[in-house]
Amino acid sequence: RSCCGDVAGDAEGNQPGGRSGGDPEMPRVEITKTLQDRKLAGWVHQALASSSAGASEPECTGFMATARSQLHISTAKGYPLCQHKQAARRADRLAYPLTTSDKFEAIAWEQRFCRTCLSKCPASFLPQ
After folding, report:
1. What is the pLDDT of residues 21-68, one digit of tens each?
2. pTM higher than 0.70, yes or no?
3. In this structure, are strands 72-75 and 60-65 parallel, antiparallel, or unpaired?
4. How far is 19 from 13, CA to CA, in rounded Å?
5. Fewest C-beta atoms under 10 Å: which of 1, 47, 84, 109?
């Protein structure tokens, strides 16, 4: 039985709230009745309104690398994505890098991708 069986039914086609095959020790939760409780609904609304996902990463514009560096993803300011939070003089460590906005051209440079840049970049910049 799935964890969401009480809300949307389960794979066997049982209706929401059905008890077939479930754990008799597991309490039955009915979402609609729970959300009717005004205190809980207020708390859920406040929690959602005050939460945030944190600061987003800067816009990625292309790729950059030197003959001796890894392949980095570049930001709009011209810094590698992995170093965008550092001071300008520290983030600008790649001297005269090759730059491109074409993923396939960057791959043709045959440099290893920076793992930190890959972990922060949008999926559209990931190598295939």
Report:
1. 556 677 776 766 666 666 777 777 788 788 777 777 788 999 999 888
2. no
3. antiparallel
4. 12
5. 47
